[in-house]
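Components:
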Amino acid sequence: MPAQRPRGVSIQDVARAAGVSRQTVSNALNAPHKLRPDTLERVTALIEEMGYRPDQSARSLRSGTRRIIAYTTPETDPDNPNALMSGFLEAMVAAAGEAGYRILLVRPRPGQSKARALEDVIAARTADAILLSDVLEDDPCVDYLHETGFPFAVFGRTGPGRPQAWVDVDSAQAMIDMVGLLSSHGHRRVAYLGTSAALPWLRHREAGFRIGARRFGLAGHEAFVDGLDEVVAVARDLLNRSPRPTALVLDDDWLAPGAYAAAQAEGLTVGADLAVTGFNDMPYTRLLQPALTTVRLPLRRIADALVSRLLQSVEEGAPPEAGLLLAGDPVLRPSMTTLA
Amino acid sequence: MPAQRPRGVSIQDVARAAGVSRQTVSNALNAPHKLRPDTLERVTALIEEMGYRPDQSARSLRSGTRRIIAYTTPETDPDNPNALMSGFLEAMVAAAGEAGYRILLVRPRPGQSKARALEDVIAARTADAILLSDVLEDDPCVDYLHETGFPFAVFGRTGPGRPQAWVDVDSAQAMIDMVGLLSSHGHRRVAYLGTSAALPWLRHREAGFRIGARRFGLAGHEAFVDGLDEVVAVARDLLNRSPRPTALVLDDDWLAPGAYAAAQAEGLTVGADLAVTGFNDMPYTRLLQPALTTVRLPLRRIADALVSRLLQSVEEGAPPEAGLLLAGDPVLRPSMTTLA
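Structure:
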């Protein structure tokens, strides 16, 4: 426990002990280049020794910096949280922390739009910058933030001609690489089981599958599901197409338990008769029998890039000019099969 | 998108439009009882119409209220986040949001203690209250926060004779209830597979198992593991004790995959020859084959109780005098077996 209680120490106390003005103490913290080196050293040593801390609420009136990034974290089920977004948040807390910033979680009030919640954050000067995730290509919040000139960045991506302050996984390339991995394991007939929701990252994965199948000269079927109750039936249907696929490429890990059940119902053994691959490397994929080959998102690299872009906007006032695509990491596990 | 841009509207603009002083506009927001009802109504309508929002950084200097709860979220692996604590955070964001508060995530800097990070939060007036989790019974942060008089609450519990600003699950009672559930399904011989780490919640579960076994007159063996690589061997050893148990009671869901593997190695079928029960209802327990009977923590009720206690401290200055234990929810799934 700290021996000194900081709230007893004022800027006046430090100034008196150092034999300088309050302004000099303030300069030591906020404009050190204005002081002579020996003065700076003496005052800084006393600030540390006496445990003085400036009141951030007064300080922020001057500098406008709170060292807080507001993040509109997506809503999830407390009894079954989205592990991907929980992992992303953890990576953001770590990356921001290393830069001396903290994450403030912003959730719109019931009936309030996300844009309105962001407006509140900006108007009340609650944060220095805003982080968005789960954006669609024409997300109005992106335009709103761009218009205000408030520093922001997006995990995800925005369409051409819009602000490009984003970092995302190159989902299409990751899917091309997955098809390449199947090709190099001897597969010639692959089937794609996708989710029909109109989410950009799902469409990038689908495009990647098509490009990959063409590039590696594989025969490919495709089918899409709307919800959990369709997965087994649609996967069984894919497994009965002619020519019969030797691999099921899923656009998201959540389809894997259903794909495994479909394989079992068709008398196929995943990892022996049939390869199954996923996307996202959700923690439960390691517990599936057999464990799932999938794509891991480089969450820490994504968070580092987002923090770097946010700080560039906050500290230099210059938003980044182009988005940044980072490669996914293929994770090879026993659901892969090698064909002769 | 909001049509009005709030940063263009100052308190002076509202005062001029309403034909009142700036102080009157300020009173409408901060001390409405000082105004005549018709003045209050006119000024409030203009504030809303013109989209004026007070600068929170100036406001907080007066009222001291930022409507922020700082939470020292535990560190986790971004590629495999702790679903229980992710779910708890989600429940806190929702519960705090309904009360008009936001959650600020505080992580000590590398080399910095948690207490020192909290000291920074208090000194810089970054938040109105602090939430702790994962505390041990003699956690020094609890004493530190109690001494400062800063509003705080704990998810977990503190020992007797210490500040009691906590909310926790009644783990012992939940385990007694689980043993009772096994008893009512015909089990007479149960074995407890526990984790040896000296964490208070694990010791409460262990105590609950012993009380339950005694209360329901069951024969009980116990064994403990230090790490993942021991689980299968120790579980197999328990299954070979005499008399052979018909149920394995786990002190945490993380032991379940190992317990299932041990059963398989012993030629037993979970859900038929052997019952297995867990604790925490981690999302993956629903994907195990068979799905695991376990105990769900009432995360939303816990979060509501914590927010209510935090706000009581912030708004009334009165910390709660006693901790609050909430019941866990047993979740019956196919890993339970019924004996004749």
